[in-house]
Design goal:
Length: 358
């Protein structure tokens, strides 16, 4: 297979971790007889410094012509001014919109070697294998808003949660398609948990109605509805009861971060953002970690596992994706762990172990 992959290193530790993932992808191509070409472009703070914009036109154009995009991280203290007209995070919103990415996927699957790193009891997180599907283009982040006006007790501002039926339908249908390909250890089909706040919000009542309709269209997949507050509680009391969680933008933003804590380290978790077709954007869920940037100690595993998702979801290379995931497991089994995982390995040590295991 031939594939073009655009790499967006971004800021902070982004260049260090995307470099490792790119080398793993190159090794996979060589091992399995593929041809991957890589093109590096700017995004985030680095793009602001070079071009005055968080997402240059050249970056978006390259991404539109690629088979997949691998992203590091954006942001840092240098650009940490919420009142600035141009901010690194605007690059993320712009690229999602520009590429038509409407669903963010965050798989949460704890490594057996790291179960004791979780803040929850081992018996609660052992065997957890869930997927959070977050809608990316609607909701309160994109609805009508009023910036703060007035002073003191008379000051006011507002944000509006808005959704259309088409926005809801496409992400819920995607969650059912993903659930159909999942099976538990006993071979039972997948389950979708649709999360809303239908007891309070009109947009959530629209969401629940559409999710119910889609559930009827997919009788082989179990559908349950869950209010967002009780879902947040259940994630820490019974995480093993979830399979696929689908929810709107802000709820998904919060719940996916909560679910990420189950594994004990944000440095381990990948994500994928998908739209129509197979092209997607892949990135670790952690930030740019400017405090350790350039020190060579960053944990690249979240980015490497994002590269595995890239192989699976955009290129359809399941065997190759599993090869990377197995290389990660073997590295952890052999004790090669970065500082955030309680070890002493630096980024190069982890890279060498992964390439050797692959």
């Amino acid at each position: 297979m031939q594939a073009k992959i655009v790499v967006l290193p971004g800021d902070g530790i982004g260049p260090e971790i995307t470099s490792v993932a790119q080398k793993l992808l190159g090794a996979v191509a060589q091992k399995f007889g593929h041809s991957f070409s890589f093109e590096e472009k700017l995004i985030g703070g680095a793009a602001i410094d070079a071009n005055g914009t968080a997402l240059p036109d050249a970056t978006l154009s390259a991404c539109k012509s690629a088979d997949a995009v691998l992203l590091g991280a954006v942001g840092g203290p240098k650009w940490d001014d919420p009142t600035a007209k141009v901010r690194p995070e605007q690059g993320l919103l712009a690229i999602r919109k520009g590429l038509g990415l409407y669903a963010n996927l965050r798989p949460v699957r704890g490594s057996k070697q790291l179960l004791d790193s979780s803040p929850l009891k081992r018996e609660l997180v052992e065997g957890v294998d869930l997927l959070v599907v977050r809608e990316l283009t609607g909701g309160v982040y994109f609805g009508k808003r009023g910036e703060p006006q007035g002073t003191g007790n008379d000051a006011y501002a507002f944000d509006t949660m808005e959704y259309t039926g088409s926005e809801i339908r496409r992400v819920v249908e995607l969650s059912f398609r993903l659930a159909r390909g999942r099976r538990d250890n006993e071979g039972r089909p997948g389950k979708v948990t649709s999360v809303d706040k239908a007891n309070v919000l009109a947009s959530s009542r629209l969401w629940r109605g559409i999710a119910t309709d889609i559930g009827r269209e997919n009788p082989g997949i179990e559908l349950e509805h869950q209010l967002v507050d009780s879902c947040a509680m259940r994630l820490v009391t019974n995480p093993g009861s979830f399979d696929v969680i689908v929810t709107e933008n802000m709820f998904g933003d919060i719940l996916s971060d909560e679910a990420a804590v189950l594994t004990g380290s944000l440095g381990m978790l990948p994500s994928a953002s998908l739209g129509e077709g197979r092209m997607g954007l892949y990135e670790p869920i952690h930030g740019s970690a400017p405090d350790i940037a350039g020190k060579g100690v960053a944990n690249p595993l979240g980015t490497v596992l994002s590269a595995a998702l890239l192989l699976r979801l955009s290129l359809g290379l399941e065997t190759e994706a599993q090869a990377i995931e197995l290389a990660v497991e073997k590295a952890l089994e052999s004790g090669v762990r970065s500082r955030d995982l309680g070890g002493t390995a630096n980024t190069v040590d982890v890279e060498k172990a992964l390439l050797q295991n692959l």
